Amino acid sequence: MTLSDVELLKSDELRRAVDANIERDPAAVALDGRVPEARLVATQVKYLQRARRKLPRLYEARCIIPPRAFEQSSSEESARRKGIAGDSLLDLTCGLGIDVLAFASRFRRVVALERDEVLAEVVRHNLSLLGVENVEVITTSAEEYVATTSNHFDWVFADPDRRSDTGHKMVCLEDCSPNIVTLLPRLRTIARRIGLKLSPLFDVEEAFRLFPSSEVEVVSVAGECKELNIYTNADNERLTIAATGLGTWHFEREAMNVKPTAEAFAAEEYRYLLIPDVALQKARVAIATLSPHAAIWSNNGYAFARELPAEPLPARIYAIESIERYHPRELRRKYRGLGIEVLKRDTQLSVEVVRKALGARAGGDRLLAVTSIAGENWIIELRNEVING
After folding, report:
1. How far apart are CA 366 and CA 30, in angstroms?
2. What does each C-alpha distance from 81 to 76, 202, 247, 328 come to in angstroms?
3. How many helices (H) and strands (E) in the chain?
4. pLDDT of 238
5. Which of 284, 309, 308, 283 is nearest to 298 (CA)?
6. Is 256 within 8 Å of 204 (Cβ atoms)?
7. How confident is the model at residue 170, as a pLDDT?
8. Which of 186, 200, 282, 343 has the smallest number of CB atoms closer than 10 Å to its CB?
9. CA distance 93 to 195
10. Would you say 308 and 349 are in contact if contact means Cβ atoms under 8 Å apart?
11. pLDDT at 236
């Protein structure tokens, strides 16, 4: 998208065209000779349709949505979840401005930096459509602004770009742009608190190594890990780890996992299998969360319960049909020729190896979970219906 495209999309004519075609197939819009700037309008129709749930405020206002910025943005719900509020905030990485939009309701003043002049102009236009007046969008890089500013803020926030120039995904914080590790000493003179949104691939222990006085939160949506957020606090040495299922549950503690279950694995006693939510696993608090309700034999593996937990838990729960040691020759008689779905945790066995060893095929006849406990592999057949989670 170019600045010329943005100016066209800001015009009354194209805004009317987008609104008039919002429910149509974008491909049909692109080929409709009656639509002015048909391909440009079609692209906006396509991404506004996709934004209906992820970015409902932008959808309702018919904001401009550049495709790449949409793919990389938070959802509005995720943005609202961030535990940041105060008088003033500096956002180093504005992007499409979804986090900025949430911050604007919790700060008197927000300064947002965006080095891409096209995206900066899009955000200014969108914020105007949404009636947001307390955000200043500056077209500059984080490095340039941080090096020269004399301003001070309650918070600095950043969602570093995790793509290289060639599109390769970056995981190490030092490789992302801007390099927060390099900027950190200067950032601490600008604000006493810093908030970071990182890739869900980022390691929790690495977060505590880089930011020892911090709160770390892992956020999942519908069982998929979406964000790892870090909140530093120069006035507090407390370290906390949290896992959140967006809109459904939240768990927080001041340390990571306790030790796995020490008792022997009494397979015949267990009637239910609990699979911890991905945010619990990523935050390494699965044991601390589920151990009051079940027994767990590894940091992030399956949990086994003798009785159905009485309260809702951040886990998928299945009734167990059988638990057997992984002896393929014996198990082949039971599963040969059947279609099996295989779940696995804490074992070197692959799904393909298990299917081949059992003489089974891919399919949905049976649901099996495979795991290793005390150095021994087990096969757990499950009733193919989630009870809770």
Report:
1. 46
2. 9, 19, 9, 47
3. 16, 17
4. 63
5. 284
6. yes
7. 63
8. 186
9. 12
10. no
11. 59
Cα gap 129→63, rounded to integer Å? 7
The DSSP result for 306-359, as a single string, is SS--SS--SEEEEEEEEEEE--HHHHHHHHTT-EEEEEEES-S--HHHHHHHHT
CB burial readout 223-234, b (16+ within 10 A) else e = eebbbbbbbbee
Cα 100 to its chain centre, rounded Å, is 18
Bridge partners (DSSP) of residue 113 are 138
Tokens of 190: 């600008």
- How far is it, in rounded angstroms, from Cα 70 to Cα 47? 8
User: CA nearest 298: which of 351, 376, 374?
Assistant: 374
The region, left, alpha or beta by phi > 0 then psi within -120 to 50, assigned to residue 214 is: beta
Reference 354, options 344, 363, 364; nearest CA is 344
Sheet containing strand 295-296, edge to edge, reads 295-296, 303-305, 272-276, 315-325, 376-382, 366-373, 339-345, 361-362
Q: Which helix (H) or strand (E) holds 379?
A: strand 376-382
Residue 292, sorted as left (phi over 0), alpha (psi -120 to 50) or beta, turns out to be alpha
Angle 84-88-94 from CA coordinates, rounded to 5°:
70
pLDDT lower than 50: segments of the chain: none
- Integer Cα distance of 242 and 253 in angstroms: 6
Instruction: Dump pLDDT digits (tens) for 163-185.
Output: 666 666 766 787 788 999 899 99
The pLDDT score that the predictor gives to residue 104 is 97
